[in-house]
Amino acid sequence: RKSVTFSRAPECPCRAIAMEALLLPWDRFSAWLHCICVVGFDLELGQAVEVSQRDPPGTKTSICYLSFPDSNSGCLGDTQFCFRFRQGSNRKSSLGCFLETTDRDAPPCLKREQGHYYGYVYFRQVRDKSLKRGYFQKSLVLISKLPYVTFFHSLLKIMAPEYFEKQEPCLEAACNDIDRWPTPHPGRILTLPIMGVVIKVSIVLPTIHEVDLFRCFYPVFFHIQMLWELVLLGEALVVMAPSPAESSDTVLALVSCISPLRYCSDFRPYFTIHDSEFKEYTTRTQAPPSVILGVTNPFFAKTLQHWPHIIRIGDMKQAGEMAKQMKVKKLKNLKTLDSKPGKYFILLIILSCEVPHKTAAHSRTQIYGVQQKRPSPAQNAILRRYFLELTQSFIIPLERYVASLMPLQKSISPWKSPPQLRPFIQQDFMKTLEKAGPQLTSRLKGDWIGLYRNFLKSPNFDGWFRNRRREMTQKLEALHLEALCEEVRRDGKRERV
């Protein structure tokens, strides 16, 4: 047996292990995956689900189209990418309470999705003269609520080649292997046998979910400050790429660049015209929604030309006439940021009828340690640390102010209800920035006040503050319960005396 090790972590408490003893058959499978699908191409029906261990969530049509690269992508060989789609209904899992317990200790970026599913795709397209179409085209798709991008892509590299060679019996064996896995509880070293390979993984370290930031951002290196701000503010952003692999990696890199802050708006690593939200996201009757879309179909170049921010990656082959019309019609309104070609040539275009986005930090981006000759993993680590420090510098003043809204512990009495948190007052917070703003920990200079003012209107602030308020309320309730217990203990002592 081969062994693939992702990371190490201390063992989990015995309580979680005891809970797993109560799980029924296929509960462990459901803790990792909703289902496994095989999507093939039929000459009459087009893309169709050929095999599925359980009915896929959402609409099968949408999943089928999301599981195949766009016809213009020309992805020969093996391609891996991921997509994300709405749950569609409030179906409750029989594992609900158990999964909430196992999910509680996970960092924000690793918590399972509540209203969306991920689809992890391994697509194979090879020439086959025995088929009428002349090509073998099929996708193996893992659908899950877990955002473990790197892990599931690594799992597919083991499963997919075996499946394409041995077909369904091989897939059934894989499902049985997964149903014997321990549940994905943070803090444990998990041993996961699959098709003769043993994967060791820990659900706490970044190797399970992170994409290569340096590879994705290298061609627009001097504009990453602006990209960070656009994501932080939840701006409408579309990534136009030549393949779903490049679009999904870039969207996931954008979402993760504000970590440890969780991106609270919608994002679609790969989006098609067949998505149920297509009309909602492309309408011109209202402003573009707070969402990041990854697309490959050239049709979106025209459909989304009114969006304020567009990243164009590589050569999206546009239809001739439409391309000519776009160049003539929009040339005057484009602000183009060119960069030297890297692994991918990226042309960043900011579309705006007024003034393009101005970064809060006007100084030129400098990331110490990033050099041409360093190995890619080292470059990636340096860039991720830069984003982490930037986000932490921004969020620390907010954390400090929100902590001041907590009532003093002496105000907690067993004879009264738990005290309430004081309200968040924007003007009071802004006053704290003069002496305790991000300038204390960040070298960047600029309009931080304007950035905070816009951030406080964004879904990312709303999601962050709701989570912090919930945590602080739970802390107050725990302190109140502790005060009650202490009073009962004192009463017991007095009675014995």
From TrEMBL:
Domain of life: Eukaryota
Family to which this protein belongs: Belongs to the DENND6 family.
GO molecular function: guanyl-nucleotide exchange factor activity
Species the sequence originates in: Sparus aurata
Gene that produces this protein: DENND6A
GO cellular component: recycling endosome
Boundaries of every UDENN domain copy: 34-475
Protein name: DENN/MADD domain containing 6Aa
